[in-house]
Amino acid sequence: MVSVAQLPSEKLESFFSTIISNPVRHSLWLNTLSLLEHIGSRKILLTQSSEETSEMILRHATEEARHALFFKKAAKSLRPEFKPGYHTNELLQGGSAKIYFAKLDAVVRRELKKAGFSGHTFTYLAYLYTTTVIEERAMIVYTIYNSVLESAEHSINLRNLILEEEGHLNEMSSELEKLDPSYKSRLKDLIDKEEVLFQKFFTRLNFVAA
Q1: pLDDT averages per 10-residue partition of the chain, 210 residues
Q2: Which of 24, 58, 108, 149 has a CA positioned 20 to 30 A from the CA of residue 117?
């Protein structure tokens, strides 16, 4: 199977061009991005709230929640009457989005357990790896999405959000290097596994966007 990360950028560009041409579908897509950011923020708070909670963790959880709010407001800006929660009919392949996140989290935890990690180190590494892999994907998706938005002279712009995601990745890479001597090879393996999961999600997104 060819990974989404290796596909020509035209594949994602075509998807986004189709999505932004339809305000209803575009608003559902934006709310789906809001859901994914919200899941990320909630996951951080659920797994990292302890005596070990650092400034980085609090800042990251806060920024993920703010990104969720940004996307939800953007969805409403396209359709003022749209007041979404995260119900299935308010999302674009919302079920597939949840499955993508849950399966990736499970893959990361399984691989870390196989490597012998446990306790707080296991929990912290699971957070770092899951978040890093998802944000690597977000950098691909958001960058191409924003390029399409700018080409269309759309009112929505993701430049500041992308910069924040880059900052997250730099911080987490530094932490991974400290805690896991094999982090480079492990991260590459997890990114390869994520590509398969995202391919399934992307295929379903394409189906509803067509």
Answers
A1: 53 94 96 96 84 86 95 96 93 96 97 95 94 95 97 96 92 93 96 94 85
A2: 58
Q: How far apart are CA 79 and CA 143, in angstroms?
A: 24
* Helix 119-151 × helix 9-20 angle, to 10°: 70
Domain ranges of the chain: 7-209
Q: Is 159 exposed, middle or buried (0-12, 13-18, 19+ CB in 10 A)?
A: exposed
Instruction: Report how far residue 150's alpha carbon sits from residue 141's, in angstroms, rounded to the nearest whole number.
Output: 14
Q: Which two tokens stand for residue 85?
A: 């929660």
d(CA 32, CA 53): 28
Instruction: Work out whether the CA dihedral 60, 64, 65, 67 comes out positive or negative.
Output: positive
Token pair in block for residue 139? 């950098």
Task: Supply φ then ψ for residue 130, to 5 degrees.
Answer: -60, -45
